[in-house]
Amino acid sequence: MKNNRFIFLLISLSLIAGVMLFAETSNAQIRFPVPSQQEIRDFENSKTYIVKEDKLISDYNLALEDAVQKHWHATDAEVISSTEFKDMRTDESASFVYMNQVYFKEDKTLTAYEYLFLFMGDKSGDIDD
C-alpha cells in the first residue's frame, strides 16, 4: 500500500514538473530588455513619433492619428511616415513607436505576429539593438 502511494506521488511530481517545463519553454520565446531609470527619463523628455505602416490601405493607419490624439499622453507625439522614420531614427532625443512583424524559431506554423515597439533614437539607427 505504501509502495503504491510512493509510485503515485512520484508519477504526479513527474507530471507536474513536465507541465512546468513545457509552460516555461513555450512562454519564454522572446525576452524584451527592461529600461534603466535614465532611459525612462530620456523617454519622458523625448518627443514620440508614431510611425504609420508602409501600406496603401491600412486599418492601422486609418485609426492611428485619432487614437494618438485621444489616448497618447506620455509625451508630445506626432504621426510620421515610415520614410521619415528611416531618416529620423538616429535622433537620440526622439522616441518612436512602430509596428514590426516577429517570427519565432520554435513556431512550426511560421506565423507572423505584429508587435508595437517603443524605440529610443540611436546613433546607429539599428532598431534591433
Sheet with the most strands: spatial strand order: 2-1-3-4
Beginning-to-end CA distance, first to last residue: 60 Å
| SSE topology string | HHEHEHEE
Helix content: 40-55%
Write the layout of secondary structure elements.
Blueprint: H1 2-27, H2 37-44, E1 47-51, H3 59-71, E2 76-80, H4 82-88, E3 94-102, E4 113-120
Give a structural overview.
This protein is of the alpha/beta class. 42% of the residues lie in helices and 21% in strands. It is built from 4 helices and 4 strands. It has helices spanning 2-27, 37-44, 59-71, 82-88; strands at 47-51, 76-80, 94-102, 113-120. The chain has a 4-stranded mixed beta sheet. Strand 1, helix 3 (59-71) and strand 2 form a beta-alpha-beta unit. It starts with a helix and ends in a 9-residue tail after the last strand. The model has no long low-confidence stretch (mean pLDDT 79).
Task: Spell out the key features of this protein.
129 residues, alpha/beta, 4-stranded mixed β-sheet, 21% strand
Sum this structure up briefly.
This protein has 129 residues and is of the alpha/beta class. It is 42% helix and 21% strand. The mean pLDDT is 79.
